[in-house]
Amino acid sequence: TDAGGTAGVIAVGAHGDNDGGDNAGSVYLLKLSSPSSGAATVDSTSKLSPLHGGLAQAGLPLVAQDKWGASVTQLPDLDGNGDGELCVGTEATFVDVVFLASDGAGGNFVVRAGVRLSSARSSVLPAVMRARISTSWGVSVAGLGDVDGDGAPELAVANGYDVAGGGPPGAPFL
C-alpha cells in the first residue's frame, strides 16, 4: 500500500484463521524492505485478529465464523496520524474500517480505532442501506478514491445475496 505512512506494507486477509474462534479470521500486515538488489523481503509482520492487534479494544470484536479478512482494501490516511487505514470485509454481514497506528519502532501496526458498518441500528450507515444488508455483505471491498470530487474517498462493498430489483443476486454498495 502507499496510503499515508504505510508505504511498503501489504495487507493479507486470512478469513479462515482460527485465532480466537473457528474461522474468526485475521489480517496480516507485512512490512517490506526497500530493496537495493531488486528483491524485497519481509522485515516485520503484524497480525490483527481477536487475540492480536487491539481489535477488541477498538470496539471491533470478532467471533467464530465471522471470516474477517475475506476481503481487504487500503484506504488513505483518514485520521491524519500518518498511517493509512484498511477496510476489512467478512462473510458475516459487516465491514470494518480500521484506523491503524504504527508502533514507531519495528514497523508493527495496531488498531487505534475502528468503525463497524453493519445492519445494526447503531451503524453509521443510512437506514435504507442497513435494511438491504444480508449474508455475505462485505465479501468484497474496494477503495475507489474520491470519485465524486467531494474530498472524501468512496468505498465499494459487495453484497453477494442482495435480491432487490428481482434480478440475479448480488449488488455493490457505495
TrEMBL record:
Any Gene Ontology CC annotation: integrin complex
Name of this protein: VCBS repeat-containing protein
Highest taxon of the lineage: Eukaryota
The keyword Glycoprotein is assigned to this record: yes
Keywords: Glycoprotein
GO biological process, one term: cell adhesion
Keyword Glycoprotein (UniProt): yes
InterPro entries hit by this protein: Integrin_alpha, Integrin_alpha_N
Organism in which the protein naturally occurs: Bicosoecida sp. CB-2014
